[in-house]
């Protein structure tokens, strides 16, 4: 089967047809109608087999996660998803792999109203690059730079489960079947917090998604905002699976583990009363884990009051030996 | 050196700062202001080492070409370049490679007023994925589907040189130093026809860029338009280098060779008088090579009047054995 037929067969069967896509896949470029009164939020992420996921990962999980990490970036900006492009290289034209991959991709694209508008399919090592575009009302994007002293620091869900999933896959922790299913599900099928991000417009002063670990990602917010922070570790939301393993794994996965894709955001004192209503409206919980302080740096406080120092400042693709 | 420092060092030194980029590199997503009255043209292309270029290609040539092929897609739509994102995986954090690559990339981005607004840098096999966005006045994009019976078929420049460059690299043809420099220059440093594409808005009825070869790419136009065409091979523009080799290589590289990135476009009879003025204005030549016909299929006519049948219908990444 030829390249063009592959593209047509698997990627033209997408579930979403948006009215703002004047020309989709099949010309030299897509032609798109941006909405009036909005800015575009644009992000790109890449997954490489053997680096971001094991070579034998189920193709549906690869498709799902490739889109999920990009959706999570839009969530962190408070943007609503609209369009994406896909650059994919594959060792061979494997129709069962493409069937699974595109299924995983579109299973996520559908509910978020996200349309595939272009891309490239080529032979090569397995890599998946996505660029995503969303809309945000002009001037309302949630930036990293808006945290101010006195703001509360929040997260949208449990931390560290994805890191436990990776430890489980690598034999670094022993898990029951049920524990394993839970944490590997969180690793392979993170739920991008798109609704939460959009709802936080006008409420949060700064926002980021946790892809490289709480310490690293909150660190980016603090650096961009010119502030520091104090986090109470006992306030971190941990899943029942994490809690049952905490004696063994400590705080590391929750503080430094990546891939959870929860949002971490800051809220000024004047707007904190709106959070409760917002959580009720969303049907989700939001956890306050600390506060922004003037003193630079991130202070992680153990329940004993001692300062906790993470071993790993966050995942870094080029710092591994 | 860490991932983030790499990105900052090489990719934050770009030459272009656009007023419509509210937030560039450094947040979860860029925040961009699309212009009123325009549609967005969006395209994505990927280059893989060992597939699209030899592993030891000079990094500046890789950077240049990765952007050039995307610019060429915008040219084929008649769109003006604005923003791009870059997903790149590299076997190791090689600063001299990144220096060369980013130099080649920005050498092309600068003159086209194109700003890098985001992306991802990761460890992995050498692959470069770019998504590019341009602007086109609403309703004026040059589509593949607009060719009509009786339209003239044109190209913007010599065909087949890039294919001769590839043959030269692979030992398929023997070249003098000067010949080699010319055709490898055309292969590695194609000039995207952005000005020509924009000038063809309102003149061309259909347009495509020649990345997979004239026969294959014109074939896409004919298929999208529901028409056929007749091409006079003696009307094809060939470089002096090509002409000196033609006895040896025949019509193949000009008809089926990819990577030239000239535009192929159709013009209705009523607008053909405007082409001369347009070419003068652009300071370039435009070559008429044939005409759109009702009979489906592409007829390539040799100077003798015989029908020419290409051996290879166009480059296909997955059809090679």
Describe the protein in words.
2 copies of one chain form a homodimer. Chain A is an alpha+beta fold and 321 residues long. The first copy, chain A, is built from 10 helices and 13 strands. In chain A, the strands form 3 sheets. In chain A, strands 8-10-7-11-9-12-13 form a 7-stranded mixed β-sheet, sandwiched between helices. The longest helix of chain A has 19 residues. The interface between A and B is large, with 72 and 72 residues. Strand 2 of chain A pairs antiparallel with strand 3 of chain B.
Low-confidence stretches of chain A: none
- What is the straight-line distance between the termini of chain A? 41 Å
Q: What's the total count of β strands of chain A?
A: 13
Radius of gyration of chain A: 20 Å
Q: Summarize model confidence as the mean pLDDT of chain A.
A: 92
Protein chain pair with the most extensive contact, residues per chain: A-B, 72 and 72 residues
List keywords for this structure.
homodimer, 321 residues, alpha+beta, seven-stranded mixed sheet, four-stranded mixed sheet, 10 helices, globular
Short description:
Two copies of one chain form a homodimer. The first copy, chain A, is α+β, with helices and mostly antiparallel strands and 321 residues long.
């Amino acid at each position: 089967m030829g390249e063009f037929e592959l593209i047509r067969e698997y990627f033209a069967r997408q579930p979403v047809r948006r009215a703002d896509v004047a020309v989709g896949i099949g010309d030299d470029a897509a032609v798109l109608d941006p909405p009036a009164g909005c800015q575009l939020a644009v992000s790109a992420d890449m997954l490489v087999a053997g680096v971001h996921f094991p070579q034998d990962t189920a193709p549906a999980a690869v498709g799902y996660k490739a889109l999920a990490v990009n959706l999570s970036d839009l969530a962190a900006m408070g943007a609503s998803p609209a369009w994406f492009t896909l650059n994919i290289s594959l060792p061979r034209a494997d129709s069962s792999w493409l069937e699974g991959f595109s299924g995983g991709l579109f299973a996520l694209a559908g509910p978020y109203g996200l349309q595939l508008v272009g891309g490239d399919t080529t032979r090569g090592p397995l890599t998946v690059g996505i660029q995503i575009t969303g809309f945000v009302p002009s001037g309302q994007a949630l930036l990293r730079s808006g945290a101010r002293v006195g703001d509360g620091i929040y997260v949208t869900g449990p931390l560290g489960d994805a890191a436990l999933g990776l430890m489980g896959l690598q034999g670094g922790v022993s898990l029951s079947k049920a524990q394993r299913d839970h944490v590997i599900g969180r690793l392979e099928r993170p739920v991008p917090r798109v609704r939460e991000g959009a709802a936080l417009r006008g409420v949060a002063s700064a926002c980021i998604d946790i892809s490289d670990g709480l310490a690293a990602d909150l660190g980016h917010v603090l650096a961009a905002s010119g502030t520091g922070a104090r986090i109470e570790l006992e306030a971190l939301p941990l899943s029942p699976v994490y809690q049952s393993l905490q004696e063994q794994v400590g705080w590391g996965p929750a503080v430094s583990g990546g891939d959870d894709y929860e949002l971490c955001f800051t809220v000024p004192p004047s707007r904190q009363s709106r959070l409760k209503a917002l959580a009720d409206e969303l049907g989700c919980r939001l956890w306050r884990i600390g506060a922004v302080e003037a003193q630079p740096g991130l202070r992680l406080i153990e329940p004993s009051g001692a300062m906790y120092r993470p071993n790993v400042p966050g995942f870094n693709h080029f710092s591994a030996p």
